[in-house]
Amino acid sequence: GASHNGMWDMALLAHVPGLRLAAPRDETTLREDLRTAAATSDGPTVLRYPKGTLPERAPALRVMAPRNDPFEAIDVLMEADDDGMGERRLLLVAVGAMTPAVLAAGRDLADEGRAVAVVAPRWVVPIPRALVETARSFDGVVVVEDGLADGGIGSQLRDALDDAAVWGGRRSPAVARVGVPRRFPGTAARAQLLADFGMDEAGIVDTARRLLDAS
Predict the structure, then answer these.
(1) What is the DSSP letter of 184?
(2) What is the pTM of this model?
C-alpha cells in the first residue's frame, strides 16, 4: 500500500550517529557486505536489499578502495569517453537495486557519444569520502536510489560536495537526485512506480540529458 513502499529508511537512518548502511546490488555483493557487517563491532550496521527475485550480477571493472577500507569501496561498473567530442563528463551513481537501470541508462548515454561513468558504492551511509573525491572530477552527477530523494543518498552527496567546494576551493559539480518524491505513492506494481517517478532507464537518461544541458 501507499505507506509500505520501503522508501524512508535511508533518509531516516542517515541521521543515526555512527551507523553504517550498505546497499548491495546483487547476491555477490550482499554476501560480501554481510561479512563486513558481521565483523563490525564499533557501531550499528544495516544492509538494504530488495525482496523478490535476485538481481542480475553486475561485476565491477575495477574497485577503488582507499586503504583497503571496505566502507570506502567504490565499484566502477562502466566507463565511456566521448571520442574527443568535448562532451561534459557525467557520473551516474547507482544505489543498490537501481544498478541495472542505471547501467542501462549509462549505455544509452554512451551510445549518444556522452562521456559517462557508472559507479556503485557498497556502503552509502555515511557518504564515502572516496565517492566525494571521485564525483568532484566530473561536470555532472546523477544519483539514483529507490528511496526518498529528499534527505536521501543524493542529498547527502550533494551536501558533501558543496562542503568540499567551500573548503577545497574547487567548484562543486551539478547534482541531480533521482528517487521517490516526498508523498504517499498510489498502490501500483514496482515497475510502474519506478516509471512514474522517472526512476527507470528512460527517466534516468532524460534526467542526465537535462542536467548536462543546464549545467
Answers:
(1) -
(2) 0.93
